[in-house]
Amino acid sequence: MAAGRRSPPGPCCPPRVAVPSVHQSLPEMDFERGIWAAARDGDEPRVLELLERRGEPSQPDLAGYTALHYASRNGHLGVCRLLLQRGARCNARTPGGATPLHRASYCGHLPIARLLLAHGADPLATDGDGRTSLHKAAEQGHRELCALLLQHSPALAGVRDAKGRCPRDVAVPAVRDLLDT
């Protein structure tokens, strides 16, 4: 990306400005040149090129996020599909325990959540705070996503996080009725 050019903001992401390489650290340069930035930006041809050259779709970056985490958070269905076809682990965890399904659920990316579930994503997986993907979707008011997760795993409604809260307890009012058990 050219210096100073803004990328379009995603539903969860503020606009960002590319930093000229003279101001980047080596880890930042590695990230920008790697599969993680390509996945974050939805650059399918670049992701494919990097997979063909390096072949490891689930390699985490220095922060512990995989390309699938970035693509899931930013709503890039095609990149997610490509990564999963190439063997990306759909239940890969960050150091904080987040899975790609957590990321997609928080941002309300219903088609990506469907794709991840179809590839075996565990809806009962909890992050470091004990929160499931349903907690994430409910707190952001993603009604259709909450319904999908509950349809896939009704037991999610009763899972308590590290503070003892069920998804209904953290839900915005617009989705609470879905979570009544």
Structural commentary:
The chain is mostly helical and 181 residues long. The protein folds into two domains: 25-89, Serine Threonine Protein Phosphatase 5, Tetratricopeptide repeat (Alpha Horseshoe), CATH 1.25.40; 98-181, Ankyrin repeat-containing domain (Serine Threonine Protein Phosphatase 5, Tetratricopeptide repeat, Alpha Horseshoe). It is 49% helix and 0% strand. The chain has eleven helices and no strands. Helix 4 runs parallel beside helix 6 and helix 9 packs parallel to helix 11. The longest helix is centred in the N-terminal third of the chain and has 11 residues, at 44-54. The protein starts with 25 loop residues before the first helix and ends with a helix. The model is unreliable at 1-8 and 24-31 (pLDDT under 50). It comes from Pampusana beccarii. ANK repeats lie at residues 63-95, 96-128, 129-153. Keywords: ANK repeat, Repeat. InterPro entries: Ankyrin_rpt, Ankyrin_rpt-contain_sf. This is ANR39 protein.
